């Protein structure tokens, strides 16, 4: 009877223990499954909890940027009939200026955009700490900056904004190597009160021979803040512009190099050194960069697809 009573007392507790063990095993299995599926990124975590911070979204217009990298096309086992090609834009490339033949092989001029091309900047007070921490752990260079805003405070004094700036990987080496075979020009649609101190920080060696800000941009029938290269030179044979927003160079589409936008969520980006630098070195050897760029990017046709006729472009 004593043994029977003892069994009756301990039997329920052993069942509870087994249930607890099974629950723990199930819990660890769920964790293991999450690890196998992969850890979510910062952006995914924010979207999971219903928070999609505006700093994580690109400030560029809503269009699919053209990647500079040329990817090989995969062979399809059952090829579909190719759609009829759209009519190509009528493109006329003017000859280089007459005169000394060496004029067409003068030093290349490289015009560089700032935001989302060389750096990305966010208002410090609105930047999630996890974004900064993730970038720091990945080795991304960043710094904080005081910028004078065009807005005024109550007392009439200029308002000071605090921003956190992330440098695109390889930025310093990129500017160093480009300056060895090209003249560098900084052309941003940003205001000078914000852009000037920022460029002072990333261009300690004064490699930019010229800096242009928003007042130097023009408005067109199709877009505002367009960067007109004719203000720099009348001979566009040896001038290129690199910008994450193709509409910035819609007046000279044959001189544009569209690049993939950069954000703090891309700490392992390789566009500057692995993609743009080799292309610019190749262009530096060409008498006229425009045929090469047209063959590679077909920008007049791209603008035509977006409702901007070739007649609206200065070629």
Automatic annotation (TrEMBL):
Outline the segment boundaries, as ranges, of region: Disordered: 71-92
Q: Which superkingdom, per the lineage?
A: Eukaryota
Q: Which GO terms describe its molecular function?
A: phosphatase activity
| Family matches, as SMART domains | CPDc
InterPro entries, per database record: Dullard_phosphatase (IPR011948), FCP1_dom (IPR004274), HAD-like_sf (IPR036412), HAD_sf (IPR023214), TIM50 (IPR050365)
Annotated CDD domains: HAD_FCP1-like (cd07521)
Please list the residue ranges annotated as the FCP1 homology domain.
Answer: 103-283
By its UniProt entry, which Gene3D superfamilies does this protein fall under? Answer: HAD superfamily/HAD-like
One Pfam short name: NIF
Q: What's the protein name?
A: FCP1 homology domain-containing protein
Annotated source species: Tetracentron sinense
């Amino acid at each position: 009877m004593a043994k029977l009573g003892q069994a009756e007392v301990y039997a329920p507790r052993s069942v509870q223990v087994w249930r607890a063990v099974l629950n723990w095993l199930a819990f660890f299995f769920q964790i293991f499954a999450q690890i196998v599926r992969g850890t979510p990124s910062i952006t995914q975590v924010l979207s999971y909890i219903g928070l999609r911070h505006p700093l994580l979204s690109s400030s560029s217009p809503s269009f699919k940027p053209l990647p500079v990298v040329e990817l090989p096309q995969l062979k399809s086992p059952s090829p579909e009939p190719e759609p009829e090609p759209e009519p190509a834009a009528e493109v006329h490339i003017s000859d280089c200026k007459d005169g000394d033949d060496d004029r067409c092989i003068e030093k290349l001029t490289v015009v560089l955009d700032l935001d989302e091309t060389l750096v990305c900047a966010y208002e410090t007070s609105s930047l999630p700490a996890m974004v900064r921490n993730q970038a720091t752990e990945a080795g991304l260079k960043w710094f904080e900056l005081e910028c004078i805003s065009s807005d005024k405070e109550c007392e009439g004094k200029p308002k000071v904004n605090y921003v956190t700036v992330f440098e695109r990987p390889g930025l310093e080496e990129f500017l160093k190597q480009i300056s060895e075979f090209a003249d560098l020009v900084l052309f941003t649609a940003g205001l000078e009160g914000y852009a000037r101190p920022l460029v002072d920080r990333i261009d300690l060696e004064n490699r930019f021979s010229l800096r242009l800000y928003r007042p130097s941009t023009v408005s067109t029938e199709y877009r505002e803040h367009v960067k007109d290269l004719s203000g720099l030179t009348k001979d566009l044979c040896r001038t290129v512009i690199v910008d994450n927003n193709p509409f910035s160079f819609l007046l000279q589409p044959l001189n544009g190099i569209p690049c993939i936008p950069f954000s703090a969520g891309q700490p392992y980006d390789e566009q500057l050194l692995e993609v743009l630098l080799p292309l610019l070195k190749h262009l530096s050897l060409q008498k006229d960069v425009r045929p090469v760029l047209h063959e590679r990017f077909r920008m007049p046709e791209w603008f035509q697809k977006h409702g901007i006729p070739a007649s609206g472009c200065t070629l």
